[in-house]
């Protein structure tokens, strides 16, 4: 890494250097198009670095520019404060996928970064812009990464859309949280953020690399996922035709599992006889029987799920009495506005989980 003997040059001086470098590279491209079209990403970084060194002669940046070896961000540093990230495409456009939003490999002390983009399709051209001004969206490979658009207009960056500055986002301990919140607000029915179910615990490389069929799992694994789905999605007790959509998306995107008959995991078996708190026997859908069967596992799942996970899936703020709140949501989805059905369902669930009511206050007694 370069340690500059110069005092930190002003941003205007670095901007002049970048403009001069663009002119230099574009002049080179006119006479050496075949050369640039054969350059790999790594070799192009070397070309840009040499161009910067050439153009920095006689400026405060002379002898302070160096290509950084290894997987660090950005690719080139200048005066130990400025940086240049080099991206390219062999196609005839100005769009590409950029670096991770986490910036865990960012070089310390580098505060201002420019993007130098090489469009290596015919005709070969180069453009440079402040890094944050050409980041249009956030795309996902195994972790959220910026999407680069060198033609992006002022006011159209991802930071403008999110209402947060680039510097504020990059300095956060968990930048994926506001990103997930923004993209979650844009979801349409049937869509899911496959890369971030629980942004409090997201880490790189956590998305399953393979997928498998639910039918190939052993009984214990199937039970675990049934419990998690009914806990996270009380809507499974409703009557909507789309009630299996979100659990299916969750199962695929968070666990890498495909279920071709997910409905049967909850509804097969017709009706079951259940008792209300008053001891009255009523017939309820099969899913109530499954809840009774897995009640201890449901309690553990509720207790160990993060606030973020439950609030995002339940679509309401989390109360201290998670189990009671979940029972109410299940009954609400089952009843669909029918108070009589709601009261019966809630009474059945209270019986299952050993609730009792005193002075209109619901209490829970754990079974010994």
How are the strands ordered across the major sheet? 1-2-3-5-6
Strand content: 15-25%
How many strands, what sense, and barrel or not for the largest sheet?
5 strands, mixed
Termini Cα gap = 63 Å
Key terms for this structure?
single chain; 368 residues; alpha+beta; five-stranded mixed beta sheet; three-stranded antiparallel beta sheet; 14 strands; disordered N terminus
Descriptive overview:
The model is unreliable at 1-6 and 197-207 (pLDDT under 50). It contains 14 helices and 14 strands. α1 packs across α3, α7 (219-232) packs across α11 (295-304) and α13 packs antiparallel against α14 (339-352). It has a 5-stranded mixed beta sheet with strand order 1-2-3-5-6, with helices on one face. Strands 4-8-7 form a 3-stranded antiparallel beta sheet, with no helix packed on it. It has a two-stranded parallel sheet with strand order 9-10. The chain is α+β, with helices and mostly antiparallel strands.
């Amino acid at each position: 890494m370069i340690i500059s003997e110069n005092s930190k040059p002003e941003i205007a001086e670095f901007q002049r250097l970048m403009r001069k470098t663009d002119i230099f590279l574009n002049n080179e491209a006119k006479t050496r198009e075949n050369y640039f079209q054969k350059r790999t990403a790594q070799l192009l970084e070397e070309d840009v670095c040499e161009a910067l060194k050439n153009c920095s002669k006689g400026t405060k940046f002379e002898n302070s520019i160096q290509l950084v070896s290894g997987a660090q961000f950005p690719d080139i540093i200048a005066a130990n404060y400025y940086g240049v990230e080099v991206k390219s495409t062999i196609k005839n456009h100005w769009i590409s996928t950029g670096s991770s939003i986490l910036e865990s490999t960012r070089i310390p002390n580098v505060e201002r970064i420019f993007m130098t983009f090489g469009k290596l399709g015919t005709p070969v051209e180069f453009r440079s812009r402040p890094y944050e001004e050409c980041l249009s969206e956030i795309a996902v490979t195994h972790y959220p990464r910026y999407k680069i658009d060198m033609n992006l207009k002022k006011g159209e960056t991802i930071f403008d859309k999110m209402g947060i500055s680039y510097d504020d986002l990059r300095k956060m301990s968990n930048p994926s949280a506001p990103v997930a919140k923004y993209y979650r607000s844009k979801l349409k029915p049937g869509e899911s953020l496959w890369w971030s179910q629980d942004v409090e615990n997201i880490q790189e490389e956590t998305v399953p690399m393979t997928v498998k069929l639910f039918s190939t799992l052993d009984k214990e694994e199937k039970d675990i996922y049934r419990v998690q789905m009914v806990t996270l999605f009380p809507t499974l007790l409703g009557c909507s035709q789309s009630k299996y959509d979100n659990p299916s998306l969750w199962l695929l995107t968070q666990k890498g599992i495909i279920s071709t008959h997910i409905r049967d995991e909850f509804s097969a078996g017709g009706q079951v006889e259940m008792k209300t708190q008053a001891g009255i026997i009523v017939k309820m859908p099969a899913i109530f029987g499954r809840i009774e069967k897995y009640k201890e596992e449901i309690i553990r799942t509720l207790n160990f799920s993060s606030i973020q996970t439950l609030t995002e899936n339940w679509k309401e703020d989390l109360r201290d009495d998670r189990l009671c709140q979940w029972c109410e949501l299940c009954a609400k989805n089952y009843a669909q506005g029918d108070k009589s059905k709601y009261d019966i369902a809630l009474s059945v669930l209270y019986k299952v989980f050993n609730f009792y009511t005193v002075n209109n206050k619901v209490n829970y007694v754990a079974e010994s």
